Amino acid sequence: MSDNAAAPSSRPLKTTGLHDGDAAPGCKKIDPILEIDGVSRTFGGLIAVDVDHLEIPRGAITALIGPNGAGKTTLFNLLTGFDKPDKGSWTFDGKSLAGVPAYRVARMGQVRTFQLTKALGLLSVMDNMKLGAKDQDGENLFRALLPFLWRKQEQANEKKALDILERFMLDTKKDDYAASLSGGQRKLLEMARALMSDPTLVMLDEPMAGVNPALTQSLLDHILNLKAQGMTVLFVEHDMHMVRHIADWVVVMAEGRVVAEGDPYTVMQDQAVIDAYLGKHHDEDLGADTEHVEVLKELLDDEL
Ligand SMILES: Nc1ncnc2c1ncn2[C@@H]1O[C@H](COP(=O)(O)OP(=O)(O)OP(=O)(O)O)[C@@H](O)[C@H]1O
């Protein structure tokens, strides 16, 4: 794995040399952190996810893209223990995760951001951070009977939370209700909370959704920072500009399957990807995700 030192300084350094052989769906990675085999999930008669084989490269930023209903969120839910597949297996850092509940997946170092729900909005920013901590000794009955141990842990968690909030420029908001934050600040809080458990792999679900342009760069920098600190990032995103800008690798899903993989520029030129966004019925113009196709074209023009 090597960083491309020739990349222009205004653009983030992309990590290259991630795969072995052709960049085709299911291709081998030099150092995979996640390996998925034969994972499928149906809802009634609908096949939401049907992934034959997929490897996510370690130490890089991978974007999971695809038109609406492609199965991206369902795959995220399966990988993080929030949902169960009909069949299939997958490993994180060489350890099988099939059947492992969400809280244990997170303790093992694979953490996903979860959206600031109504209930979490009624907690303070600091309390949201503490929810993300790995060692919640207060939950343990034995430790709870020994409050001095619990308090020490609480103080350590609070200090850690403050350090992270400072980096995300949210420290002055620590006592505010999370619901009072702007859309962009909420996204920052979601990411900050994920960092409380010292993750190896951070999974972000649409990090750019609802973020106004003023905070966009800050959010991108934080994601790039995760990689700089040695973490692996896997994110679902519709914003193609962001994907092109920060992703080292892109996995494209359509109708539950992986239809393309590669570096962002190559993937966005792939006919299978354009077809996926246009839907099967080009001429009928049914269900076509034309907005994304326009952005794909725009990005390709930018590059030339
Ligand atoms: N709990 C559920 N019950 C029934 N169908 C579901 C459920 N969850 C997802 N689906 C269906 O599974 C398919 C995949 O949905 P999913 O949300 O994973 O797609 P997605 O790629 O994340 O889409 P989007 O980009 O719009 O969020 C869709 O057809 C969706 O309607």
CATH fold-type name = Rossmann fold
The mean pLDDT is: 85
Main sheet makeup: 6 strands, mixed
CATH class: Alpha Beta
Low-confidence stretches: 1-9, 281-286
By CATH, the architecture is named: 3-Layer(aba) Sandwich
Estimate nothing, just give the exact number of structural domains. 1
The CATH homology group name:
P-loop containing nucleotide triphosphate hydrolases
| Spatial shape | globular
Query: Total number of β-strand segments?
Result: 12
What hetero molecules are bound to the protein chains? adenosine-5'-triphosphate
Strand order of the largest sheet: 8-9-10-5-11-12
Helix content: 25-40%
The number of helical runs is 12
Rg over CA atoms: 20 Å
- Going by helix content, strand content and strand pairing, the class is alpha/beta
Strand content bin: 15-25%
Order of helices and strands: EEEEEHEEHEHHHHHEHEHEEHHH
Distance between the termini: 27 Å
